[in-house]
Amino acid sequence: MSDRILVTRLAVFARHGVLPEEEVLGQRFYVSLDCGLDLSEAGRTDDVSHTVSYADLAALALDIAGNRRFRLIEALAEAIAAAILSGFPAIETVRVRVDKPSAPVPAILDGVSVEIFRGRGTARGAPVAAGLATRAYLGIGSNIGDKAARLDAAVERLSRYPGIRVVARSHDYRTPPWGDTDQDWFLNGALAVETDLSPHALLTACLSVEAAMGRVRERRWGPRVIDIDVLHYEGAQVDDARLVLPHRFVRERAFVLVPLAEIAPDLTIGGERVADALAKLDRGGIERVE
C-alpha cells in the first residue's frame, strides 16, 4: 500500500515496564503510527468520509498507551496495532513505533524503541465486537450549526471507535437550553452502547470525538458543537476529578431523561427507574423530532 497516514511522536506519561520502580514512578513514552490505506478517493473528492480521522487514530493510541499497563513496549505496540486494524477497516497495514527515552539501561543512550509492522491477518489479539459485554448509556447534544448532522456524525464516530458498539439510539429531541439560557435551542438524544472499555477509557473516547468535531469549552453550560456525556455505566460507581458515575445531574434534567426513557425506561439509576424519575420533572418545551 503506497498511500500512508502518519501520526508522529504522540507523547504520553505511563507506567510501562518490567521493574517495580517503573510502575511507581512512570515516565514519558512516544508512539508513532504509519497506516497504509487507499487515499485516492479522499484526494479526488476532498471528502473526509473517504479517509481516516487523524484525531481518532491519535485518541486510540493515547487511550491504550495511557490507560493500560504493559510490562513490555512490544506488547504495547501489538495492542495498538491490533486495535487500529480492528477499528478502522480502511487501513490495510500499520507500523507502530514506541520510543522509551528513559529506559533503565546501564549505558549512555538516547533511549530504546520497538517497531512492528502488521497487516490484515497478522495482528494478534484484535478485539471482537461480539465479545463486548458492558452496557453503558451516553447523552448527546448540539446547539451550533446543523444540529442533526452533528449528532449523526458523533454517533458514526463513536460506532467506529474500537471497543464501542452502538446498540440503540433514541429519536432526536428539540430542547430549551438549561443552566445558561441565553443561547440557541438544543437537539438532544441518548445512546446505548456495549463496550469493553473501562469507564474512564469510555470518557476518553467521548472527549476525543468531541475534540475531533471541534468542541471548545469556553463557558460553562454554553453553546457547543457537540456534547457527549457518559450517563451510566453498568455496575460502576465512580466519583473522582475526571468522572462521576452515574452522571451527577442525570435525574434532574428532563432533556437527558426524555431520550433516555425512550430506549431504557426501566434502567435503574440511584435506586429509581428512569421513567419514574422523568415523571417528576417538567417536560415543557421538549419536542420529539421525526
Automatic annotation (TrEMBL):
Domain 7,8-dihydro-6-hydroxymethylpterin-pyrophosphokinase: where? 220-231
Q: What is its EC number?
A: 4.1.2.25, 2.7.6.3
The pathway that the record names for this protein is:
Cofactor biosynthesis; tetrahydrofolate biosynthesis; 2-amino-4-hydroxy-6-hydroxymethyl-7,8-dihydropteridine diphosphate from 7,8-dihydroneopterin triphosphate: step 3/4; Cofactor biosynthesis; tetrahydrofolate biosynthesis; 2-amino-4-hydroxy-6-hydroxymethyl-7,8-dihydropteridine diphosphate from 7,8-dihydroneopterin triphosphate: step 4/4
From the UniProt record, list the coiled-coil ranges. Answer: none
Catalyzed reactions per annotation = 7,8-dihydroneopterin = 6-hydroxymethyl-7,8-dihydropterin + glycolaldehyde
Q: What keywords are annotated for this sequence in UniProt?
A: ATP-binding, Folate biosynthesis, Kinase, Lyase, Nucleotide-binding, Transferase
What the entry lists under Pfam families is as follows: FolB, HPPK
PROSITE patterns, from UniProt?
Answer: HPPK (PS00794)
Q: Which domain of life is it from?
A: Bacteria
Q: Which PANTHER family match?
A: 2-AMINO-4-HYDROXY-6-HYDROXYMETHYLDIHYDROPTERIDINE PYROPHOSPHOKINASE
Q: Which purpose does this protein serve, as stated in its record?
A: Catalyzes the conversion of 7,8-dihydroneopterin to 6-hydroxymethyl-7,8-dihydropterin.
Concerning NCBIfam families, the annotation shows: folB (TIGR00525), folB_dom (TIGR00526), folK (TIGR01498)
Its family?
Answer: Belongs to the HPPK family.
Q: What is this protein called?
A: Bifunctional folate synthesis protein
**Species of provenance:** Methylobacterium jeotgali
